[in-house]
Design brief:
Layout: E1 15-16, H1 34-42, H2 50-60, E2 65-68, H3 75-89, E3 96-99, H4 103-117, E4 124-127, H5 133-141, E5 146-149, H6 151-160, E6 171-175, H7 177-180, H8 186-195, E7 201-206, H9 213-218, E8 225-228, E9 239-245, H10 251-261, E10 267-270, H11 274-286, E11 291-294, H12 300-311, E12 317-320, E13 335-338, H13 345-352, E14 362-368, H14 373-383, H15 394-425, H16 433-449
Parallel strand pairs: 1-8, 2-7, 2-8, 3-5, 3-6, 4-5, 6-7, 9-14, 10-12, 10-13, 11-12, 13-14
Helix pairs in contact: 2-3, 3-4, 6-8, 10-15, 11-15, 13-14
Bound molecules: adenosine monophosphate (AMP).
Residues 45, 48-49, 52, 72-77, 329 line the site of adenosine monophosphate (AMP).
């Protein structure tokens, strides 16, 4: 895909919402009912965010919405509040469906629905892969008000769970809608759209949105209102973005150098494959860093475990594939490192959006090797600025290479062992911190003596 091919705000037949959002308004001013205003208050949401100011009133009027908002902008509240309010007005089971591309996002969204809706007795269920289908079927049999799902597992249930259907659905939300509407989920989304009523409200939310009308038409929006907090792709002002241009073979050493230079911060490091995520986590742990992996080849329990440990600050480095690049709300990420440059420029925006959230400042550093120059240029083109180089002392990096080479060797060995174990147990769960921990103990005394970089 050429850079910028899908660039820009969603286009189509929608009317632009012209509302200027200058003065701070209250949730009540937006038309939110008292009991939900109280729920916001209890969450510490004193005033609505910009996207909430734009989207909530039009959603409450019963319009379809295309919400374009930066990550961390409060977009979940922007669609959850109107849905909860409509539910209060006409209570009904299996009322709303929220589709998200990743399992972690589904849990995050469900937490917000529950927090906002607990006082009105809202029941939600998360339907995602990697979790026992039987307990999900039981939860669906209880007919929750809101289902938050990844498309694949939902289709499974629509096809196989007796008595479950979405024929009375009133609201469909696609969060990270451009991902949901792209090819990856094409078959699943088509199946879902066929079995839900056309007569429903549809909300599409994303920080980046396709402008391909064809794709948007699939979501069958009816005369939608576009609510754009920033119509051009933007990265937040408090984010300092850097790149480093380095030879591919020294990537690990540069990574270790940067982690040492910025010690005391919490990091998200993005890798392009599950294997490299796992390898790099092993490498860093061998060097004494508290690093934890999160990728698609881990069991769902382990994925949530990793995320929770990182969220609770029990680990300072989360290594992840793009499974974690979108929407995750972890307020304390100080630095995002693109260890492997993203192949789709838009993923850059999502990845760096994991830091500098909610008014905090943050840094991002993108590794650019001799093979990545073109991809990097596309990113600069997309964000509309030239990035400065992150200052480094090359000699200090070179002093690390020997210790890094040793840790690489051990990591490779551990990775091989894990692969063999996995094959012999035919089990997916050996991708964990525990597994890494065990191996580190085996690598043992040697590691302990080594100074934690
Ligand atoms: P989201 O963009 O939906 O992922 O939300 C990002 C974070 O902002 C979440 O932790 C929400 O709890 C929080 N949030 C949402 N709306 C508000 C608000 N009006 N005031 C303060 N925080 C909010």
């Amino acid at each position: 895909m050429a850079a910028g091919e899908e660039e820009g705000a969603a286009a189509g037949t929608e009317t632009e919402s012209e509302a200027a959002v200058e003065e701070l308004r209250s949730f009540k001013d937006l038309g939110v009912t008292d009991v939900l205003c109280e729920a916001c208050d209890q969450l510490g949401w004193k005033v609505p965010t910009k996207i909430q100011v734009e989207a909530i009133p039009v959603a409450l009027q019963g319009r379809d919405v295309i919400g374009l908002a930066e990550t961390g902008s409060g977009k979940t509240g922007a669609f959850a509040l109107p849905i909860l309010q409509a539910l209060l007005e006409t209570p009904q089971r299996l009322f709303a469906l929220v589709l998200t591309p990743t399992r972690e996002l589904a849990f995050q969204i469900s937490e917000q629905f529950e927090a906002l809706g607990s006082s009105i007795g809202v029941q939600t269920t998360v339907i995602v892969g990697g979790i026992d289908t039987m307990s999900q079927s039981l939860a669906l049999a209880k007919k929750p008000h809101v289902i938050i799902a990844t498309p694949g597992r939902l289709v499974d249930h629509l096809e196989n769970t007796k008595g479950f259907n979405l024929r009375a659905l009133k609201f469909l939300v696609m969060d990270e809608a451009d991902r949901i509407l792209n090819m990856d989920f094409e078959t699943e989304v088509d199946k879902i759209l066929k079995v839900i009523p056309r007569d429903r409200k549809t909300f599409l939310f994303s920080a980046t949105m396709t402008k391909k009308v064809q794709k948007l038409q699939r979501a069958a929006l009816k005369n939608p209102v576009k609510c754009a907090v920033s119509s051009k792709y933007q990265t937040v002002e408090k984010l300092q973005q850097y790149y480093i241009f380095i030879p591919s073979k020294f990537k690990d050493s540069y990574l270790v150098y940067i982690l040492n230079e910025l010690a005391g911060n919490s990091f998200m490091i993005f890798c392009s494959t599950c294997n490299n995520t796992q390898r790099t986590a092993l490498l860093l742990r061998n060097l004494g860093f508290t690093a934890i992996p999160l990728h698609g080849q881990m069991s769902q329990n382990k994925r949530l475990g990793s995320l929770n440990k990182f969220k609770a600050k029990a680990r300072s480095i989360l290594l992840a594939t793009d499974v974690a690049s979108r929407g995750l709300d972890i307020p304390h990420v100080d630095v995002v490192i693109n260890f492997d440059i993203p192949t789709h420029s838009k993923d850059y925006i999502h990845r760096v959006g994991r830091t500098a959230r909610a008014g905090r400042s943050g840094k991002s550093i993108t590794f650019v090797t001799q093979y990545d120059v073109e991809l990097f240029q596309r990113i600069e083109h997309l964000i509309g600025k030239k990035l400065p180089a992150f200052p480094m002392q090359e000699e200090e990096v070179m002093m690390l290479t020997e210790r890094v080479a040793e840790a690489q060797r051990i990591a490779r060995m551990e990775l091989r062992e894990q692969g063999e174990k996995k094959r012999s147990r035919n089990d997916n769960d050996d991708d964990t911190e525990e597994a890494i921990g065990v191996r580190n103990k085996v690598a043992g005394g040697k590691k302990k003596k080594r100074k934690a970089f």
